[in-house]
Design brief:
Number of strands: 0
Helix content: 55-70%
Shape: globular
Largest sheet: none
Radius of gyration: 20 Å
Number of helices: 7
Strand content: under 5%
Oligomer: single chain
């Protein structure tokens, strides 16, 4: 480890325990929107599509240096809906809404749905 890395490690410290407790209390509230929601392993194809669209819009925001407020203004939506998109609250957003938002942002969109049943029918089986 170089001396620069050692110095960086020494400067880094966790916030005080009281601050961590306050943060945990805030994010554990049932209606707290500013927490990223992961995709469940047993997600449906529609949920996977919504999740990918949310992630794509979030990447667009980062790459174009937009604020949440600017995104909301471009899409004509309020702060709550903007947070649902950016933090992947896919249970609060319809698939067609997300598709329309990508259109509004002039983002290229290509969707492909792979059905496991279609794959099973298409693949040859050795006997």
């Amino acid at each position: 480890m170089t001396s620069t890395n050692k110095q960086t490690l020494k400067k880094f410290s966790f916030p005080p325990e009281e601050e961590l407790k306050k943060l945990l209390k805030r994010v554990e509230q049932p209606n707290y929107r500013r927490v990223n929601i992961g995709l469940h392993p047993d997600a449906t194809p529609a949920e996977k599509a919504k999740y990918k669209l949310c992630k794509t819009i979030a990447r667009y925001v980062r790459e174009n240096n937009l604020t949440e407020k600017e995104l909301g203004k471009k899409l004509g939506i309020d702060q709550t809906k903007t947070e649902y998109i950016l933090f992947c609250h896919i249970d609060k957003i319809a698939l067609d809404e997300l598709v329309n938002y990508t259109e509004e942002l002039a983002m290229p969109l290509e969707m492909k749905i792979n059905s496991k049943h279609a794959w099973e029918k298409a693949s040859p089986k050795a006997h």
